[in-house]
Protein: Amidase domain-containing protein
Amino acid sequence: VLELVHLLKTKQITFVNLTKIFLMRLKRYNHALEAVISYMEDLAYKQAKEAYCLLEQGVYLGFRHGIPYGLKDIISVPHYKTTWGSTTFKDQVLDIEAWVYKRLRSARAVLIVKLVTGSLAYDDIWFGGRTPNQWNFDELYLAAFAIGSETAGSMTYPAGRCGVTSLRPTFGTAGRSGVMSISESLDNKLGPFCRNVMDCAVVLDAVRGRDPDDLSSREILIEDPFSIDIRKLTVGYLEDADMEVVSTLYLLLLH
Structure:
């Protein structure tokens, strides 16, 4: 994200061309990956042009400004389908603007696609097929990115298998209005899928906060990660944890 921000601000690439590159790439590979439910080209180009016009006027709204992203298709956007991955709801259009979409729209991020979710946010089967791990087509994992959700592993499992970074935030960090509800006691934690941890922090900072339509949401501040003394942290892990990760964390804490 930070590299793309630099390219946009220094005019090495235009907002519209960056959006076009991502849409073309998705279309090129989606026949194999089955990761996209809905392309949102009209909206994407409109938002890209608006983001550019603001920058030309001297208004810059932070690291999300002009950056393309996708939403898991349990998150509603007015005038576009929100299918929940289900055959029953594959033509459903909800006149609801989800909180996380409002926040990213306000930050002038550019929504380009709605991404696959398993039917009713469960497992890896949806009404159009099954979405594989892009590195190993014998593995069937949800291949979502950008803003996803988790009730019991829907972010951590695919991120771990597909080689990207996800951030499963504390319950209540991001408002859930406009998102398909699963369980009141163990419901969606909304968070980002990105290339790296810094990107996740940039995105989470945009979507966090008190959602007036979600009583469980809270105004949770994010500390500057570079101001934290990691040597004072305690790391807990289960017996079946990846010991390579545990060893890396141990070495970081020592130094």
